[in-house]
């Protein structure tokens, strides 16, 4: 069985709120000075990543999922379940909400809703996010939206590098200007905008809002998830599990030398290199890792180890 990790060429997306940090920080060849999203690990039809190495070089991750399910532990479902992004918010994103699976399947005819989480790679001093709202009931939320009481409705939270936020479907949220964030999410591109600051899109007209869907999907009242981080030290590596929920797990791995062997406890593994340089070692084969790399370790691999200085976000479906 082939054990080659799948290194991926990201799909890059222009956004009216995007900037140049995906080039300036990670060295990606961005299409314009308003590039907002790097879809680093993606099999979504709106931006599939292309495999750069090994027997499947030149094929998309979506094609590998379709034709070589043995690399993914015969994982159930027609669609690859997760999507890893890096977002450069030069200015504020719209205030939005995502549906759960049931709503997305019924109303959008897509396989997944969108539960996500954010790891703050870097941000300007004083940066913030919109995270939740103050309305106690659905009717109070509806009334505040209709009356455009954004200043009192929306909860704003200050952020700093290294912060982590869990954003389950139904959470009113927005990444605000000055933030560089790695997002792990279900493989979905369904977004309902509830407020967009009355700004125009590329055509000069206000961007479409989705008020009815946003009211339908918003969790009322908002409740902050209670997160417990689990930290494990092994050799010269620190493993911090940031999130374990019914859809996926997300961890931060801090490698400062030799990690020692890490035995498989996942169907397949998604890795993004936020910083540093080093090696991924499978059996006795070494693969160079550098800042900005995105890769999938297939289910055929029983154990991995790392060497070097590496700052990684690692996820897997459950």
From TrEMBL:
User: InterPro entries in the record, alphabetically?
Assistant: Carb_Metab_Reg_Kinase/Isom, Man6P_Isoase-1, Man6P_isomerase_Firm_short, MPI_cupin_dom, PMI_typeI_cat, RmlC-like_jellyroll, RmlC_Cupin_sf
Report the GO molecular function annotations.
mannose-6-phosphate isomerase activity; zinc ion binding
Essential cofactor(s)? Zn(2+)
Q: Where is the signal peptide?
A: none
* GO biological process per UniProt: carbohydrate metabolic process
Q: Give the enzyme's EC designation.
A: 5.3.1.8
* Family per similarity comment: Belongs to the mannose-6-phosphate isomerase type 1 family.
Name under which the protein is recorded? Mannose-6-phosphate isomerase
């Amino acid at each position: 069985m082939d054990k080659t990790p799948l290194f991926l060429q990201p799909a890059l997306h222009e956004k009216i709120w995007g900037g140049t940090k995906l080039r300036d920080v990670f060295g990606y060849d961005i299409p314009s000075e308003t590039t907002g999203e790097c879809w680093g690990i993606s099999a979504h039809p709106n931006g599939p990543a292309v495999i750069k190495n090994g027997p499947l070089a030149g094929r998309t991750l979506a094609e590998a999922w379709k034709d070589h399910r043995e690399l993914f532990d015969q994982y159930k479902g027609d669609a690859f379940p997760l999507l890893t992004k890096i977002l450069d918010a030069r200015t504020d994103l719209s205030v939005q909400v995502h549906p759960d699976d049931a709503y997305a399947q019924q109303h959008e005819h897509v396989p997944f809703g969108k539960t996500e989480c954010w790891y703050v790679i870097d941000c300007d001093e004083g940066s913030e996010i919109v995270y939740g709202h103050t309305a106690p009931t659905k009717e109070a939320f509806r009334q505040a939206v209709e009356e455009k009481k954004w200043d009192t409705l929306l909860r704003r939270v200050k952020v700093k590098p290294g912060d982590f936020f869990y954003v389950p479907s139904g959470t009113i949220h927005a990444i605000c200007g000055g933030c560089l964030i790695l997002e792990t999410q279900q493989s979905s591109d369904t977004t309902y905008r509830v407020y967009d600051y009355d700004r125009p899109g590329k055509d000069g007209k206000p961007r479409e809002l989705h008020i009815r869907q946003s009211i339908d999907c918003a969790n009322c009242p908002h409740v902050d998830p209670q997160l417990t981080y689990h930290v494990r030290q092994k050799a010269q590596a620190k493993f911090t599990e940031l999130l374990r929920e019914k859809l996926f797990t997300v961890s931060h791995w801090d490698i400062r030398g030799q990690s020692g062997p890490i035995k498989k406890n996942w169907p397949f593994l998604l890795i993004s290199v936020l910083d540093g340089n080093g090696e991924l070692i499978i059996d006795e084969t070494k693969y160079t890792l550098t800042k900005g790399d995105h890769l999938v370790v297939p289910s055929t691999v029983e154990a991995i180890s790392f060497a070097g200085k590496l700052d990684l976000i690692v996820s897997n479906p459950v």
